[in-house]
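Q: I'm writing up a methods section and want to include an example of the input and output format. Could you take the sequence below and give the corresponding predicted structure tokens, formatted cleanly so I can copy it straight into the document?
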Amino acid sequence: MYSVMVLDNSEVELVAIQKALEKDYNVIAMNNAKQTLARLNKANIMPDLLIMDLMLQGVSGLQVLTRLMTADKTKSIRVIIISGDKDASTEIEAYRIGAADFVKKPLNMQILKKRVEMQTEFLENKKQIR
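A: Here is the clean output for your methods example:
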């Protein structure tokens, strides 16, 4: 079973995403960017996928994404950004930094589940190639 870490300040969003995914994935809910980065730095096993909001308390989600994508230990994590930002330049910047996907808020859980499924299919295909 693939593991999906979710980082969002909103408890409502965290619970909704967790409920939508927990049947098919091992979901790890996090509500603090600094704690999430610390946990990932200490982890022996990385989550397969990270779903992350861009609006995080005290830090920009793009900054967190940059840290993840530039660190050897975390750069292979597939990241799906979720954001209510309507500015296309934000989405383009997220992809430039290394996001695997970008889902706009308000979230449609069926769409989010499909995007997660697509990313885990990518990971499965990558495993088979190796």
